[in-house]
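pinned: reference chain
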Amino acid sequence: MISVMRHLVWSVVFALIAGSTCAAVKRKPTPDSVQTFAAGATPTTLPCTFSFANDKLQYNLCPLLHRHKGHKETSDGDKTVEVDLRPIKIRIVEETPPTRTISVYSIGLRSALDWNGTLPAELQCPKGTWICLIVENIRPSHPSEPKRRLQVIPVAGAPNLAPRAQLGKRKIPETNDTETIVQYLIHGGSYTNRPQMVYFQFICDAHSKEPSEPTYLWRWNGTHTFEWKSRHACREASRITTTAPEATEVPSPGGSDDAEDPIAEPPQVPEEVPEHVRPHPVLVLGIVVGTILHVLTPFQFPCLSLTR
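pinned: its C-alpha cells
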C-alpha cells in the first residue's frame, strides 16, 4: 500500500511539472500596441509612421524624426520639405561643488553623427553613433582651466539601432489622469559593457510651436529618457499620414489592444522580462514537493530503503 501511495504521489508531481512546463513555454501574443523593426538593420532614416490596427490609429512622426523645418516653393511652383540636417543639441548643467558638470547630448535622427578626424578617438563617440552623450566638468573658481572630459557615452548607433515604437500610458501631473503616448526606443550603444538606449516620450500638445524639440527627463541604468511634446503626437493630427521619402509604414501585428507601459521610472529596470523565461508557480511547487518527498522518504519509511 505504501508503495502504491508513493507511486501515486510521484505521478501527480510529474504531471504537475509536465503541465506547468507546457504552460511556461506558451508565449504571450505580441500586443497590437508594439511595433518592432529589424534588429540588425541600419536604416538610412528612422521609421516614422506607425499604425495600430486595434485602435484604428496612425501616427506620423516624420516631421519630428526626420527634422522637417517647413516647406519651400521650387521654381516650377511645387512645394518641397525643408530638412534640418544638424543634430539636436541638448545641454544639462548641474552644480557639483567644487565643480560644475555639463552634459551635452548630440542627437542625429537622420544619420550617424559626423566623425571629427582631428580629435582623438577616445574623446568622441565611435563612428556610426547616432546619439552621443559627452560629460565634462569645470571649476568655476578657476576659469582659466580647460574643461575635463569625464565620459563619452555612445547611446545609440549602428549596426543595432533596432528602433521600436509602442503605445504607452503617462500620468498627467496637473490632474493625475493618464493619457496615451507614443514611446519610441532606439538602441545600439554600449558603455562599460552596459547596453544603452534612448527613450522618447512623444506627448500630444496641440499648441506646440513647430518644429519642436525634445527635453531631457532622466538617465538611469543605460536608459536615456526625453519628453517630446508636439501636435504631431496627437491622435487627431496623426490619422492622416504623409510618409516621408525613404520612410516605410509598417503594419502592427495582431493581439491585445491593451496599452501597457513597460518603461518604468528609475530605479526600476525599463526592459520587460519575457513571460516565457519567468519560472511558472506550478513548476516551482512541483519541484519543491518532489524534492521534499525524495529527501524525507528514507526517514519516514526506513524499511523501504533497506529492502531495495
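why pinned: The first strand starts at residue 34 and ends at 36. Residues 2-26+278-306 form one domain.
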